[in-house]
Design a protein that fits this description.
CATH superfamily of the largest domain: Alkaline phosphatase D (PhoD)
Largest sheet: 10 strands, mixed
Strand order of the largest sheet: 7-4-3-13-12-11-25-26-27-28
Radius of gyration: 25 Å
Pfam families: PhoD, PhoD_N, Por_Secre_tail
CATH class of the largest domain: Alpha Beta
Number of domains: 3
Structural class: alpha+beta
Organism: Luteibaculum oceani
Protein name: T9SS type A sorting domain-containing protein
CATH topology of the largest domain: Purple Acid Phosphatase, chain A, domain 2
Keywords: Signal
InterPro entries: Metallo-depent_PP-like, PhoD-like_MPP, PhoD-like_sf, PhoD_N, Phospholipid_Metab_Enz, Secre_tail
Distance between the termini: 39 Å
Length: about 650
Amino acid sequence: MKFNLLLLLFLVINGFLWGQTDSEIRQIRYSAANDELVYISEMAPFYHGVASGDPTHNSVILWTRITPTHKAAQLNVIFEVATDISFSNIISRGSLNTNAEKDFTVKFDQQGLQPNSFYYYRFIHNTDTSIVGRTKTMPIDDAENIRFGVVSCSNFQAGHFNAYRFASQRTDLDFILHLGDYIYEYGEGGYGYNEDTQRGHEPDHEMVTLEDYRLRHSFYHLDPDLRRAHQLFPWITTWDDHESTNDSYKDGAQNHTDSTEGDWEIRKNAAAKAYSEWMPIRNPDPINPVKIWRAFDYGNLMDLIMIDTRIWGRDKQVRSTNDENYGDPERTILGKDQLSWFKDRLSRSNSQWKIIGNQVQIMLVQTGPNQPFNLDPWDGYPAERDTVLRFIRDNEIDNVVFLTGDIHTTWAADLALDPFNTKSSLNPDGYTALTQDGAIATEFVTPSVTSDNLNEILGAPAGSSTGLEAALMQTNPQIKYIELDDHGLMIFDVNKDRAQAQWYVGEILERDTTPELLTAYKTDSESNRISPALLELFEDDEKTPENPEEIKKKYRTDIGTKEIGVVFNAFPNPCNDFVRIQFGIEKAIKGEIYLIDAQGKTIIKEALKSFNSGVYEYTLNTSQLKSGIYFFQLKSRIGNLSYQIVKS
């Protein structure tokens, strides 16, 4: 809910337009000092890389996006899956079609794989091949351990994705779990703007339409550290609010106004459609992308149950505990159907550990007697939280662990019905702090990848929150650890003896920094309570085989004029009043922007400008154009860039 927006460097180009005005171009700058190449011609036409997700014991979702070089009705892509990095043993090959209805993304469910095995995959279009991705299936029988990275709250504008980079450098992870806020909806200069990061957002305004959400996903996928983490590991993801908009719920959102932003259902469905297109997720209901709650059975060791506390069934948040609806037993954060499914999954699980992928904190956190810390998470839905915790306790379901994001900070806590009063025969719902008697389950919270934590919100140096951390732990005896000032990720390791979290934190204003180990906590099997763990209890074991190359170097023979860049997206196209063109330039040039009609007549010619390497957004007012076909062109002495635009 709190986020840091980054620096957007932009240029306004004062060109001239015969018959109309109001065109604008801006560069979304990555840090040149850190050599963050977001547009790499060798990756054509698969500039957004590859990804895999939702692995089971015999299947995995495989994903890519092909960037068309012109306005195409349909494109064909070949996929190959092999057991080795050289593709000498290809076990699956086929072709798929994609089109503008899917934003030219390609996603399919590769079946028939072997359990607990690594695979390599790639995509081919004409003579061009994508980078090679590596993925892994999950075990079907006994497993010694499962280890995965846990991340959330990755605001591009707030800083560098060093947590993703750190995960990519590890060789011991089975998958990456993202607990929401994968993208952020805010536009240029919005909440949390950070001038210290030479990064930007595109589009430059808040996401509202399907085109907006697609452009933002496209932009995030160009980040080299995010792209690399997707390339090397399967991901399991859920959304929180910022994939749609702040503090969203089933029927609306705090950051949505119907009168100025349109119907909420249209916006919600647009956000869900773009998410389904751009993320390697297996949708439980193919015709309803809003439904993403699902579960994974990883043998006898672990079940992973992914719930949706944000969009599916959530009632509107209350602003105060004095609200008459606050304690209403009918209020829900899950929805009745999802709650029933969740309880059924818990009761039927035959796995030792029941791990819950949960967006918002379920632990009860108070700043004083009957004063919840935050009413957006489960604290704002106390009746349903009690229902869940009582179900776990009354059915004697051990080893339930909630993994949570959202709050941008690090926490470890016991879950109890009444943690503020001692457990006794007169108060069976109580909790005894010294012995931890009354603990029902546990919760581990991962910090943000980049989104602002407490010291940044206050404008204070790191370490300034120690007093508040101590006060919160004193007021809330069930909380065993809090750290409010650092960014990073959690590495979570599950074996037959315990489930353990280790947190790694580091800087976000510079790229390539290596996160440091912060602390470690665990829950021993059948204890249902939190305890400190030995630091470095598990090392970076070499589980994974050879890494595929990050960038596939190749030489291309282009016919005709050399192209100096690529158009990633143009929305809306066909257009009415405007079109927004997202394009990349590989090397610094001086060039002129033209708009040419189908007869070759120049409609727009902008003044000569300098373009550094990077990603640009060009917004063109097309309201006065006649209906027909036009060509956006960027011309320079060393080559040209061209893309077809249609005016309705």
